[in-house]
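Before a colleague's protein record goes any further, I have to sign it off. What it holds is a sequence and that sequence's fold in token form. My question to you is simply how this chain folds and whether the tokens agree. Thanks in advance; the entry in question is below:
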Amino acid sequence: MKYVLDSHTHTLVSGHAFNTIREMTRAASRKGLNLLAITEHCVNMPGTCHEFYFQNYRILDRNAYDIPTLFGVELNILDEKGSVDMSSELLSTMDVAVASLHPPCVPFMSKKDVTNSIIRILENPLIQIIGHLDDDRFPVDYDEAARAAAANHKLFEINNSSLAPTSYRPGAHRNYLRLLEACEKHDVEIILNSDAHADTLVGAHQYSEPLITEAGFPLEKIVNDSVSHYFTYLKPEVRNYFPDNAFPN
């Protein structure tokens, strides 16, 4: 399968990443991608940018870089109620929103509380993707989560960085197999993302691809196969940033 987009990457303004927007888009172009999303860590992550940075996305030309580029956010889930660290008003202006559990930003919770949180996030119309739901420290009922994703037309991410030997998230491989089983059961689509914090890792799937094969997950349920497939999960006006001939697929 050819993967034509990466929807979860970070630049140096996230505080613990290493490259600029231009360097990340150049790397994506060299990898043969057709679209890249920059999704900086939101404001509760130590070391990341101020909300003014996200407000100023409005000045950016999505067609001015090496490939078409979206500008969004990786939100921090804050509690069992599904609260996140960006106002709804500002979140509504993001091209794409990934919501994730990060230990610096949320206390470890019971399985019931994590599941309730994820369901509330999936019910939020301003959030499209649940990021790296794979950490043993945040146990979740994958069947209930997948049921909610199906009801709300949302994506689960398979995060290549979680599966890497350098990952700090315990249990990712085992948990992803359980998540994929639940997604197949409830007819939920997924997205493979690099979570790249360096330009050398943009578009990387060397750990997630074998997992997909091991799980026997249907390739047609992976939205990285075309930009148009991916855009069915975003607000319609995002497509309007780009000319009709912007994407070969």
In short: The chain has one domain: 5-241. Residues 5-241 form a domain with the TIM Barrel fold (CATH 3.20.20.140). The chain has a mean pLDDT of 97. The chain has nine helices and seven strands.
